[in-house]
Automatic annotation (TrEMBL), chains A, B:
EC code(s) of this entry: 1.5.1.38
SUPFAM superfamilies: FMN-dependent nitroreductase-like
UniProt KW Hydrolase keyword: no
Class of enzymatic activity (EC top level): oxidoreductase
Residue ranges annotated for the Nitroreductase domain, each copy included: 10-165
Keyword Transferase applies: no
Keyword set, alphabetical order: Flavoprotein, FMN, NADP, Oxidoreductase
PANTHER family according to UniProt: NADPH-DEPENDENT OXIDOREDUCTASE (PTHR43425:SF3), OXYGEN-INSENSITIVE NADPH NITROREDUCTASE (PTHR43425)
Any Pfam family matching the protein: Nitroreductase
Protein name per its UniProtKB record: Oxygen-insensitive NADPH nitroreductase
GO MF: FMN reductase (NADPH) activity
Family: Belongs to the flavin oxidoreductase frp family.
NCBIfam families named in the record: PRK10765.1
Length: 246, 246
């Protein structure tokens, strides 16, 4: 197994960071790695905002599920879907791309581009011995956080990402078995037995892991979080910024 | 620079593959790497379909922009957003998650999870000397391709990915300058000058690259593809599968 695959397989989310900050050089190296990712039709439909102002970071953390480690020493990136620059460039070229950028597919394109870039940054960071945690909670507070970050129309925050020096590492969680995720030639709807076994595996894992213990299964945890987080404000917010209107 | 960052920075899309197929072991290793990625609230809201049947692959290629290299020796993966299994599990747990999974945020969650997994697979593949190409064109033919793959409700194909042994490699395209993508503390809407310089850089690149030459700028290329591909059928398709209805 090569060093890269080892890095990928050793991934865990880190939720406790030392006070050591990233250097400007590290940030530049990480963003360069992010930008090396593929991009749909090479549209580069994303932006990255680094939040360094302590007050601003504190406020964003409060709106993003109030997870305390966001304000620790790690660098806080917010990945955004972004077709604002394309909208401006289209006007300069006397072209109308409203139908495209206001359609739901453009929201997928921006989300995909932001996510490809983010995952490159994550793997680069982990290969340097840094730890990371995605902050999907940025979408819990997307309305307020967008105000704080001066997010204009045709841009929206997809998620946050903390990157820093790990204080402690969690255990690696077992994934859905291969056969439950990977299908051959056609979608296989009959994965109930596989998921039942997986629930047993995860129950054992949660009972025995080194951190916070519980006796829940994966199903209970995953379905519980779906039930808790409908984010029903999302459509109105996105439409208000010009996205996914048609 | 470590091996992993070198792999990441050397990425190019490969559009010509030898006839050598991936082994079952390689496929398993790649999917395991994909599964090691983070997942929003650990919901693992994605599935991967490997298309090996030559007839099926040929038909999908025709609907996905008819790019001939899809049917070459590489392995063809289709990454799907998937909350179908969560819907089934919620019913077993007597919970109603319709409001969540039918909201637009769930479509983002599934897209993010599929993309995180895919990018892990890409970097693992490239670290093994393989070449890759994302096929966003799968969404051009999403209606027909979903029929061919037996895609049920609460699942949709996000993109395809070809992974195989490269026959030839393209040059690496220059990206938007760092300052155009990375903003500090607040979104910076004034990137017009940076993008103007970038257009000069890309024009020179396209005029001099080893493959198909042209004298277009990045703006013209990116805006042109937005204008060409509104994918205005996407909302109807997604709604029909239960997604993004509210």
């Amino acid at each position: 197994m090569n060093q890269t695959i080892e890095t990928i397989l050793n991934h865990v989310s880190v939720r406790s960071f030392t006070e050591q900050a990233l250097t400007e050089e590290q940030i530049k190296q990480l963003v360069t790695a992010a930008q090396a990712a593929s991009s749909a039709s090479f549209q580069q439909a994303y932006s990255i905002i680094g939040v360094t102002d302590p007050d601003l970071k504190q406020k964003i953390a409060e709106h993003a599920g109030n997870q305390p480690f966001i304000t620790e020493g790690g660098h806080f990136f917010v990945f955004c879907a972004d077709v604002n620059r394309h909208k401006q460039l289209a006007e300069d070229l006397n072209m109308d791309i409203s139908e495209t950028i206001e359609g739901i597919d453009a929201a997928l394109v921006g989300t995909i581009d932001a996510t490809l870039a983010a995952q490159n940054l994550v793997i680069a960071a982990e290969s340097m011995g840094l730890g990371v945690c995605y902050i999907g909670g940025v979408r819990d507070g997307i309305i307020k956080i967008s105000e704080l970050l001066d997010i204009p129309e045709y841009v929206f925050p997809v998620f946050g990402l903390v990157v820093g020096y790990p204080n402690e590492r969690n255990d690696s969680k077992p994934r859905i078995p291969f056969e439950g995720i990977y299908h051959t030639n056609r979608y296989n709807s009959n994965t109930k037995e596989i998921l039942k076994q997986y629930d047993e595996t995860t129950k054992l894992y949660y009972e025995n892991r080194s951190g916070r213990k519980s006796s829940r299964t994966w199903s209970e945890t995953a379905i519980g979080s779906f039930a808790r987080l409908p984010r029903s404000f999302m459509k109105g917010f996105l439409n208000g910024k010009g996205w996914a209107k048609r």
